[in-house]
Amino acid sequence: MAAGVATWLPFARAAAVGWLPLAKKTMPKPPVDKSSRSDEILYVNVSGVRFQTWKNTLDRYPDTLLGSSEKEFFYNEDTQEFFFDRDPEMFRHILNFYRTGKLHYPRHECIQAFDEELAFYGIVPEIIGDCCMEEYRDRKKENQERLAEDTEANEGMDAPLPPDSTSRERLWRAFENPHTSTMALVFYYVTGFFIAVSVIANVVETVPCRPPKGSVNDLPCGEKFGLAFFCMDTACVLIFTFEYLMRLFAAPSRCKFMRSVMSVIDVVAIMPYYIGLVMPENEDVSGAFVTLRVFRVFRIFKFSRHSQGLRILGYTLKSCASELGFLLFSLTMAIIIFATVMFYAEKGTKGSTFTSIPASFWYTIVTMTTLGYGDMVPNTIAGKIFGSICSLSGVLVIALPVPVIVSNFSRIYHQNQRADKMRAQQKVRMARIRMAKKGTTNAFLQYKEDRGIGDGDSTALCVKNKSAFEHQHHHLLHCLEKTTNHEFTDEINYSELCMTESVGFRTSRSTSLSSHQGAQNNSTGCCPRRARRRAAMRLANSTVSVSRGSVQELDTLHFKTTSIPPQTRSSLNAQCVNLKLNCGNPDYTAAIISIPTPPSNTPDESPPLSPVPIPGILRNTRATAYTHDTVKVSSL
Amino acid sequence: MGAVVGTLTMQTKQRTTSRDSIDDELEMTMVSHRPEGLEQLEAQTNFSKQELQILYRGFKNECPSGMVNEETFKHIYAQFFPHGDASMYAHYLFNAFDTTNNGSIKFKDFVMGLSTLLRGTLREKLEWTFHLYDINNDGYINREEMTEIVRAIYNMMGKYTYPALKGDVPQQHVDAFFQKMDKNKDGVLTLEEFVIACQEDETMMRSMQLFENVM
């Protein structure tokens, strides 16, 4: 029931007097209205802009934030008003909804911001008034499409494969996205080249060449150099067949692949050759054979895998199917009408070319598309009049659906451009995020070092400019370390440790702590150079994959027990007991927690600290950035 | 050819006249009605200033033009009775509220009616009810009028009732009513008969508490 009807409720209840004389039973007691009927003005302060409204106005919609007791949470006793830390511009629209009962969508606002405000105030978007509903829906759909595109682009082709993908998956990825590996790129260009060769061969073999000696007529090159062309054709078809079979093998869903447009084109491109091979040199079927050769021209469509523009064109045509259909239908109608008229108008004349209505179709089409070959021309006056009407209307009928198709094409083209731009920007954004993450990692590691140096409760020389947030955050990470009895460190130290570990690993195997990744541990897997390179590559891979999804990700790596007594680096080689590293850990990353800190400054080489008795391997070889405040952290 | 031009001009002429009437209609709806001053209304009704203010704010919000026509009235009233068809009863109510009989209820009518019903004396309320039942305003309620009213009330119940409406329940209801009310058995009710009979009806007197706490 519309809330405005609440105003009329007293009236409706009063009008019940009309029932009283007729009632056979006593009326029930009316409900006691506890709330005072006197209206009061409420003050609502939204980020400094004060709004005032009657309490009744807000009570109209009791299932929203402002209409229910939820607003009590925002009541400020000191100023006797409700304070909301939200956008006052948007609040204006929200409040108008209460006043008028209609929610309007401000066109200049971002649709997501508006949605968020609605969600905050507990208003369902469905109540947007009819005047603004269409605009809202369009914008929302556009936004969702854009988001879908973005997520598709994110998790799409550019992300590297998980390391445990099968060769089949890798093959498929190589086919779909040639930029991933050089082999795929090579194959891509080779197929492109062969498509071009094949198409050119098809074209050239019909060109008349000089006839061989002893003959008069011109011969098409195809017959003169028959063998050469046949060999070229065979080579192309072999390559195409090979490619098709590879794609079929690699496709994740073979049925879906076989039904896709590109695969059909592939099949149509190579089938004529094989059919030609198996077909005997029979006169009867040679006609059909000639037809088959025509299908060879479909090889040119294979280029659409190589060209995005072609794909866009195809997609546009598909999406404009209804407009094209309309165009076709209206053209057909007009053609039939005009052809009939012209035929009967020209029927009497001698030697008229309009021999039948289907024959007049040709004239009508040529006239309506303003081609005007002139092979069929009306002679009677009536014929000429209707002919001119035909050509005028042809211009109109064809001009009508064309703008729709054009606008569709431009929209899709721009979408594609945007997708490409997004992908390019994504890389920059990821790089920036990575820098930020590195910054926070090092902040924590620095803090640990300082803490270690200061031995727990240092009397700080100067307190670092760390926010309360950072303090609490580092404390949390510290607690995690204590829980798991491992420590955070960064990748350089880790790989070094790996190196040193392999030396003394064989003897310490028995004392290894068990971890679920321990199974992969063996000394060969800890080969120093390979491990470092692999580790670096995996790091690169996983940071990229980390960029997917939310910004806050906690991939920890921990590989050292804190039970080892403080020791210098040199003594590590000697110490074999209790030293276990998960070197074979296939996926580790540095402890990366990103909080919105500005990216750190340019990295500067910090002077390596002397081997400090830290219960850790935090040798300061980091070439990574850290903030330029060299301060101690007071113990948390 | 002349005939063609002639018909074409005739068409345009018709269109212009219809367009004029549409403009006139728009003009009429744009006009808004303002009630008399707050003091006068306070004097004429039994409401206090605050109550009048609250009532007017709600009224003006719903009807910015200041007047309610019958369609809107029916629509509003129907919202309270979604089960059945409240249009007939709303029609009679509209006529009862529209004391000036000009097809629209203004705020003054609205508030005077409410004042009578909610703050008036018993006699005033009964008079208002009599006025509601007396459809043709001739001072008498006859059986037909009563039947109309009762049917309209039963229509508001809708189809799905328990126990189901079987037979001509409204007619029986009217017969019972007239039996109770019509003292001199002349088939019509006068105002006096109605008032006296109602005052004697204990059930009804107890039900008058309906009007507590409405405003």
UniProtKB/TrEMBL annotation, chain B:
Signal peptide: none annotated. This is EF-hand domain-containing protein. May be involved in the calcium-dependent regulation of rhodopsin phosphorylation. Binds three calcium ions. It comes from the Eukaryota. PROSITE patterns: EF_HAND_1 (PS00018), EF_HAND_2 (PS50222). GO terms for cellular component: voltage-gated potassium channel complex. Keywords: Calcium, Lipoprotein, Metal-binding, Myristate, Repeat. GO terms for biological process: regulation of potassium ion transmembrane transport. CDD domains: EFh (cd00051). Residues 85-120, 121-156, 169-204 form the EF-hand domain. SMART domains: EFh. PANTHER family: CALCIUM BINDING PROTEINS, KV CHANNEL INTERACTING PROTEIN 1 B ISOFORM X1. GO terms for molecular function: calcium ion binding; potassium channel regulator activity; transmembrane transporter binding. The lineage of its organism: Eukaryota, Metazoa, Chordata, Craniata, Vertebrata. The keyword Calcium applies. Belongs to the recoverin family. It comes from Pleuronectes platessa (European plaice). Transmembrane segments: none annotated.
